[in-house]
Design the sequence.
Protein backbone atom coordinates (compact mmCIF):
# COMPACT_ATOMS: atom_id res chain seq x y z
CA UNK A 1 0.00 0.00 0.00
CA UNK A 2 3.07 2.24 -0.09
CA UNK A 3 2.92 3.01 3.60
CA UNK A 4 6.18 3.24 5.56
CA UNK A 5 7.08 0.58 8.12
CA UNK A 6 5.46 1.68 11.34
CA UNK A 7 7.83 2.22 14.23
CA UNK A 8 7.26 0.53 17.59
CA UNK A 9 5.93 2.59 20.47
CA UNK A 10 8.83 1.94 22.87
CA UNK A 11 11.26 3.25 20.23
CA UNK A 12 9.15 6.30 19.38
CA UNK A 13 8.91 7.07 23.10
CA UNK A 14 12.69 7.64 23.18
CA UNK A 15 12.54 10.16 20.36
CA UNK A 16 12.45 13.84 21.32
CA UNK A 17 8.79 14.82 21.30
CA UNK A 18 9.29 17.61 18.79
CA UNK A 19 11.04 15.20 16.40
CA UNK A 20 8.35 12.53 16.46
CA UNK A 21 6.42 12.12 13.28
CA UNK A 22 3.20 10.67 14.55
CA UNK A 23 1.58 11.10 11.16
CA UNK A 24 3.46 8.00 9.98
CA UNK A 25 1.70 6.02 12.68
CA UNK A 26 2.95 4.08 15.67
CA UNK A 27 2.90 0.34 16.31
CA UNK A 28 1.67 -0.50 19.80
CA UNK A 29 1.77 -4.27 19.33
CA UNK A 30 3.93 -6.44 21.60
CA UNK A 31 4.93 -9.97 20.63
CA UNK A 32 3.09 -12.52 22.73
CA UNK A 33 0.59 -10.00 24.13
CA UNK A 34 -2.85 -11.10 25.29
CA UNK A 35 -6.20 -9.33 24.98
CA UNK A 36 -7.00 -10.08 28.61
CA UNK A 37 -4.97 -8.60 31.43
CA UNK A 38 -2.45 -11.06 32.85
CA UNK A 39 -3.96 -10.72 36.35
CA UNK A 40 -7.29 -11.85 34.94
CA UNK A 41 -6.13 -14.54 32.51
CA UNK A 42 -3.47 -16.01 34.76
CA UNK A 43 -4.10 -15.00 38.40
CA UNK A 44 -2.14 -18.02 39.73
CA UNK A 45 0.81 -17.55 37.34
CA UNK A 46 0.33 -21.03 35.86
CA UNK A 47 0.42 -20.12 32.18
CA UNK A 48 3.87 -18.60 31.82
CA UNK A 49 2.51 -15.65 29.82
CA UNK A 50 5.00 -14.20 27.34
CA UNK A 51 4.48 -10.56 28.36
CA UNK A 52 2.35 -8.41 30.70
CA UNK A 53 1.72 -5.75 28.05
CA UNK A 54 -1.92 -6.64 27.42
CA UNK A 55 -4.28 -4.87 25.03
CA UNK A 56 -5.48 -2.53 27.80
CA UNK A 57 -1.91 -1.35 28.43
CA UNK A 58 -1.39 -0.85 24.69
CA UNK A 59 -4.57 1.27 24.54
CA UNK A 60 -3.25 3.34 27.47
CA UNK A 61 0.03 3.88 25.55
CA UNK A 62 -2.00 4.95 22.53
CA UNK A 63 -3.95 7.51 24.55
CA UNK A 64 -0.75 8.79 26.19
CA UNK A 65 0.89 9.35 22.83
CA UNK A 66 -2.15 11.21 21.54
CA UNK A 67 -2.35 13.51 24.54
CA UNK A 68 -0.17 16.30 23.08
CA UNK A 69 -2.64 16.37 20.18
CA UNK A 70 -5.62 16.15 22.43
CA UNK A 71 -5.20 19.53 24.16
CA UNK A 72 -8.40 20.52 22.48
CA UNK A 73 -10.60 17.55 21.93
CA UNK A 74 -11.35 18.68 18.37
CA UNK A 75 -7.63 18.31 17.37
CA UNK A 76 -7.60 14.87 18.82
CA UNK A 77 -10.79 13.86 17.04
CA UNK A 78 -9.47 15.22 13.74
CA UNK A 79 -6.34 13.10 13.99
CA UNK A 80 -8.20 9.97 14.98
CA UNK A 81 -10.98 10.42 12.45
CA UNK A 82 -8.45 10.56 9.59
CA UNK A 83 -6.46 7.55 10.83
CA UNK A 84 -6.69 3.85 10.11
CA UNK A 85 -6.56 1.89 13.34
CA UNK A 86 -5.45 -1.72 13.01
CA UNK A 87 -6.87 -3.44 16.08
CA UNK A 88 -4.99 -6.72 16.16
CA UNK A 89 -4.55 -9.51 15.47
CA UNK A 90 -4.96 -9.94 19.20
CA UNK A 91 -6.52 -12.64 21.35
CA UNK A 92 -4.69 -15.71 20.01
CA UNK A 93 -2.14 -15.68 22.83
CA UNK A 94 -4.98 -15.80 25.37
CA UNK A 95 -5.45 -19.36 24.10
CA UNK A 96 -1.84 -20.23 23.17
CA UNK A 97 -0.39 -19.54 26.65
CA UNK A 98 -2.83 -21.79 28.56
CA UNK A 99 -2.91 -24.57 25.94
CA UNK A 100 0.89 -24.81 25.77
CA UNK A 101 0.96 -24.76 29.59
CA UNK A 102 -1.22 -27.89 29.51
CA UNK A 103 -4.60 -26.33 30.34
CA UNK A 104 -7.57 -28.35 29.07
CA UNK A 105 -9.29 -27.28 25.89
CA UNK A 106 -12.69 -27.29 27.64
CA UNK A 107 -11.45 -24.61 30.06
CA UNK A 108 -9.72 -22.52 27.39
CA UNK A 109 -12.91 -22.53 25.28
CA UNK A 110 -14.69 -20.67 28.08
CA UNK A 111 -12.21 -17.75 27.73
CA UNK A 112 -13.45 -16.79 24.26
CA UNK A 113 -16.36 -14.50 25.30
CA UNK A 114 -14.02 -12.66 27.71
CA UNK A 115 -11.40 -12.16 24.99
CA UNK A 116 -14.06 -10.77 22.61
CA UNK A 117 -15.32 -8.48 25.40
CA UNK A 118 -11.77 -7.15 25.99
CA UNK A 119 -11.42 -6.41 22.27
CA UNK A 120 -14.84 -4.70 22.19
CA UNK A 121 -13.92 -2.59 25.19
CA UNK A 122 -10.71 -1.38 23.49
CA UNK A 123 -12.60 -0.63 20.26
CA UNK A 124 -15.32 1.29 22.11
CA UNK A 125 -12.74 3.35 23.95
CA UNK A 126 -11.04 4.38 20.71
CA UNK A 127 -14.40 5.22 19.12
CA UNK A 128 -15.15 7.47 22.09
CA UNK A 129 -11.90 9.32 21.34
CA UNK A 130 -12.93 9.81 17.71
CA UNK A 131 -11.68 6.73 15.85
CA UNK A 132 -13.76 6.26 12.73
CA UNK A 133 -11.99 3.56 10.67
CA UNK A 134 -10.92 0.33 12.34
CA UNK A 135 -9.61 -2.89 10.82
CA UNK A 136 -10.16 -5.81 13.19
CA UNK A 137 -8.51 -9.09 12.14
CA UNK A 138 -9.81 -12.43 13.37
CA UNK A 139 -7.71 -15.41 14.42
CA UNK A 140 -5.93 -17.53 11.80
CA UNK A 141 -6.32 -21.31 11.34
CA UNK A 142 -4.22 -22.34 14.34
CA UNK A 143 -4.82 -26.05 13.63
CA UNK A 144 -2.39 -25.73 10.71
CA UNK A 145 0.70 -24.44 12.51
CA UNK A 146 3.64 -26.73 13.36
CA UNK A 147 3.60 -25.68 17.05
CA UNK A 148 0.04 -26.97 17.58
CA UNK A 149 0.57 -29.97 15.29
CA UNK A 150 3.49 -30.88 17.56
CA UNK A 151 1.57 -30.23 20.80
CA UNK A 152 -1.19 -32.61 19.68
CA UNK A 153 1.05 -34.99 17.73
CA UNK A 154 -0.34 -38.52 17.50
CA UNK A 155 -4.02 -37.48 17.39
CA UNK A 156 -6.43 -39.87 15.65
CA UNK A 157 -6.17 -39.71 11.88
CA UNK A 158 -9.84 -38.66 11.75
CA UNK A 159 -8.93 -35.41 13.56
CA UNK A 160 -6.83 -34.18 10.61
CA UNK A 161 -8.26 -32.60 7.47
CA UNK A 162 -7.08 -34.99 4.71
CA UNK A 163 -6.58 -32.13 2.22
CA UNK A 164 -4.51 -29.78 4.41
CA UNK A 165 -3.17 -31.94 7.27
CA UNK A 166 -4.55 -29.35 9.74
CA UNK A 167 -6.29 -30.30 13.00
CA UNK A 168 -9.96 -29.75 12.21
CA UNK A 169 -11.19 -29.22 15.78
CA UNK A 170 -8.52 -26.58 16.42
CA UNK A 171 -9.46 -24.72 13.24
CA UNK A 172 -13.12 -24.92 14.34
CA UNK A 173 -12.00 -23.21 17.55
CA UNK A 174 -10.57 -20.30 15.51
CA UNK A 175 -13.88 -20.18 13.62
CA UNK A 176 -15.77 -20.02 16.94
CA UNK A 177 -13.63 -17.05 18.10
CA UNK A 178 -14.17 -15.37 14.73
CA UNK A 179 -17.96 -15.90 14.81
CA UNK A 180 -18.23 -14.29 18.27
CA UNK A 181 -15.99 -11.45 17.10
CA UNK A 182 -18.08 -10.81 13.99
CA UNK A 183 -21.30 -10.78 16.05
CA UNK A 184 -19.74 -8.29 18.47
CA UNK A 185 -18.53 -6.07 15.61
CA UNK A 186 -22.09 -5.99 14.18
CA UNK A 187 -23.37 -4.83 17.55
CA UNK A 188 -20.74 -2.07 17.72
CA UNK A 189 -21.57 -1.01 14.13
CA UNK A 190 -25.27 -0.65 14.93
CA UNK A 191 -24.46 1.52 17.96
CA UNK A 192 -22.02 3.67 15.91
CA UNK A 193 -23.33 3.79 12.33
CA UNK A 194 -20.86 6.55 11.35
CA UNK A 195 -17.86 4.35 12.24
CA UNK A 196 -16.36 2.07 9.58
CA UNK A 197 -15.41 -1.26 11.15
CA UNK A 198 -13.74 -3.72 8.78
CA UNK A 199 -13.42 -7.38 9.74
CA UNK A 200 -10.07 -8.83 8.57
CA UNK A 201 -10.78 -12.37 7.40
CA UNK A 202 -7.27 -13.69 8.01
CA UNK A 203 -8.75 -17.16 8.57
CA UNK A 204 -10.04 -17.78 5.06
CA UNK A 205 -7.17 -15.96 3.39
CA UNK A 206 -4.64 -18.18 5.15
CA UNK A 207 -6.66 -21.38 4.75
CA UNK A 208 -6.39 -20.95 0.97
CA UNK A 209 -2.61 -21.17 1.28
CA UNK A 210 -2.94 -24.59 2.94
CA UNK A 211 -5.59 -25.77 0.47
CA UNK A 212 -3.63 -24.95 -2.69
CA UNK A 213 -0.05 -24.20 -1.60
CA UNK A 214 1.55 -24.70 -5.02
CA UNK A 215 -0.66 -22.01 -6.49
CA UNK A 216 1.03 -19.57 -4.10
CA UNK A 217 4.58 -20.92 -4.53
CA UNK A 218 4.72 -23.02 -1.36
CA UNK A 219 6.29 -26.24 -2.55
CA UNK A 220 7.62 -27.46 0.82
CA UNK A 221 5.49 -29.59 3.15
CA UNK A 222 2.97 -27.11 4.57
CA UNK A 223 2.86 -28.83 7.98
CA UNK A 224 6.58 -28.47 8.60
CA UNK A 225 8.32 -25.31 9.78
CA UNK A 226 11.24 -24.06 7.70
CA UNK A 227 13.18 -23.08 10.80
CA UNK A 228 13.16 -25.23 13.91
CA UNK A 229 14.85 -27.77 16.13
CA UNK A 230 13.73 -31.05 14.56
CA UNK A 231 10.84 -33.44 15.11
CA UNK A 232 7.98 -34.47 12.83
CA UNK A 233 6.96 -30.88 12.11
CA UNK A 234 10.41 -29.35 12.69
CA UNK A 235 9.07 -27.62 15.79
CA UNK A 236 10.78 -28.11 19.13
CA UNK A 237 9.77 -25.98 22.09
CA UNK A 238 13.26 -26.50 23.61
CA UNK A 239 15.01 -25.28 20.46
CA UNK A 240 12.93 -22.50 18.90
CA UNK A 241 13.89 -20.84 15.63
CA UNK A 242 16.72 -18.37 16.19
CA UNK A 243 18.17 -20.14 19.22
CA UNK A 244 20.89 -22.84 19.47
CA UNK A 245 19.65 -26.25 18.30
CA UNK A 246 17.49 -24.81 15.53
CA UNK A 247 18.37 -24.37 11.88
CA UNK A 248 16.62 -22.91 8.85
CA UNK A 249 15.80 -24.55 5.52
CA UNK A 250 17.53 -23.45 2.31
CA UNK A 251 14.62 -21.57 0.79
CA UNK A 252 12.27 -20.03 3.38
CA UNK A 253 10.00 -18.53 0.70
CA UNK A 254 8.79 -22.05 -0.19
CA UNK A 255 7.39 -22.75 3.30
CA UNK A 256 4.22 -21.24 4.76
CA UNK A 257 5.55 -21.55 8.30
C1 LIG B 1 14.08 18.47 21.47
O1 LIG B 1 14.70 19.00 20.32
C2 LIG B 1 14.59 20.43 20.20
C3 LIG B 1 15.14 20.83 18.84
O2 LIG B 1 16.36 20.18 18.55
C4 LIG B 1 15.34 21.07 21.38
O3 LIG B 1 15.22 22.49 21.31
C5 LIG B 1 14.71 20.57 22.68
O4 LIG B 1 15.47 21.06 23.80
C6 LIG B 1 14.70 19.04 22.74
N1 LIG B 1 13.93 18.61 23.91
C7 LIG B 1 14.36 17.65 24.71
C8 LIG B 1 13.43 17.29 25.83
O5 LIG B 1 15.42 17.05 24.56
C1 LIG C 1 4.57 -9.70 34.87
O1 LIG C 1 4.25 -9.08 36.11
C2 LIG C 1 4.62 -9.85 37.25
C3 LIG C 1 4.09 -9.13 38.49
O2 LIG C 1 4.46 -7.78 38.47
C4 LIG C 1 6.12 -10.01 37.26
O3 LIG C 1 6.48 -10.82 38.37
C5 LIG C 1 6.55 -10.72 35.99
O4 LIG C 1 7.95 -10.82 35.92
C6 LIG C 1 6.04 -9.97 34.77
N1 LIG C 1 6.33 -10.77 33.60
C7 LIG C 1 6.72 -10.26 32.43
C8 LIG C 1 6.98 -11.25 31.33
O5 LIG C 1 6.85 -9.07 32.25
C1 LIG D 1 -0.50 20.78 24.55
O1 LIG D 1 -0.29 21.26 25.87
C2 LIG D 1 1.05 21.08 26.33
C3 LIG D 1 1.10 21.50 27.81
O2 LIG D 1 0.11 22.46 28.10
C4 LIG D 1 2.00 21.87 25.45
O3 LIG D 1 3.31 21.67 25.89
C5 LIG D 1 1.86 21.38 24.01
O4 LIG D 1 2.67 22.13 23.14
C6 LIG D 1 0.40 21.44 23.56
N1 LIG D 1 0.31 20.77 22.24
C7 LIG D 1 -0.36 21.28 21.23
C8 LIG D 1 -0.37 20.45 19.97
O5 LIG D 1 -0.93 22.34 21.27
C1 LIG E 1 14.63 -30.68 20.92
O1 LIG E 1 15.71 -29.84 21.25
C2 LIG E 1 16.47 -30.29 22.35
C3 LIG E 1 17.49 -29.20 22.68
O2 LIG E 1 18.25 -28.86 21.55
C4 LIG E 1 17.10 -31.64 21.98
O3 LIG E 1 17.81 -32.13 23.10
C5 LIG E 1 16.01 -32.64 21.59
O4 LIG E 1 16.58 -33.84 21.13
C6 LIG E 1 15.14 -32.05 20.48
N1 LIG E 1 14.00 -32.94 20.22
C7 LIG E 1 13.72 -33.40 19.00
C8 LIG E 1 12.48 -34.26 18.90
O5 LIG E 1 14.38 -33.16 18.02
C1 LIG F 1 4.17 -33.49 5.66
O1 LIG F 1 4.82 -33.78 6.86
C2 LIG F 1 4.01 -34.46 7.81
C3 LIG F 1 4.81 -34.57 9.10
O2 LIG F 1 6.06 -35.15 8.84
C4 LIG F 1 3.57 -35.78 7.24
O3 LIG F 1 2.73 -36.44 8.18
C5 LIG F 1 2.82 -35.55 5.95
O4 LIG F 1 2.49 -36.80 5.35
C6 LIG F 1 3.65 -34.74 4.99
N1 LIG F 1 2.82 -34.36 3.85
C7 LIG F 1 3.19 -34.56 2.61
C8 LIG F 1 2.23 -34.11 1.56
O5 LIG F 1 4.26 -35.08 2.30
Sequence:
Amino acid sequence: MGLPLIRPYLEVLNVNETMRNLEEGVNFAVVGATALDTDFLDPMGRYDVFTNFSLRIQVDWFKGMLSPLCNTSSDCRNVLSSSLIVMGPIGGNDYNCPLFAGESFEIVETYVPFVIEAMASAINELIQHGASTLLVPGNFPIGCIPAYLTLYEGSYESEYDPLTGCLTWLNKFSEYHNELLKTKLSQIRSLHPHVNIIYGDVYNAELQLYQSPEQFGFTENTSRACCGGGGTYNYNLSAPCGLPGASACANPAKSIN
Q: What stands out?
A: Residues 221-257 form one domain. The radius of gyration is 20 Å.
